[in-house]
Amino acid sequence: MKQWFLLVLQSIKVFLLFIGCTVLFYYGILWVSAEYESYHRYDEPKGKAVKVMSYESNEIEMTWVERLMMYYHFGE
Q1: Which residues cross the membrane (predicted)?
Q2: What is the pTM of this model?
């Protein structure tokens, strides 16, 4: 009877620890989500930002195979 009681007590401790960690993780994710909700990803860059690639009409047209090879080569 004593071993059964200790087993139940240990199981309750593990269950409470699991629930506590789950609740902590859940509210941590909510906090991070709220923190980055106000982050404006699509604002114009400030400072000395440089445009990496432009799509002007006078550039050389690439076939889809050339574009795919460039993707594999540079990891675009």
Answers
A1: 12-32
A2: 0.50
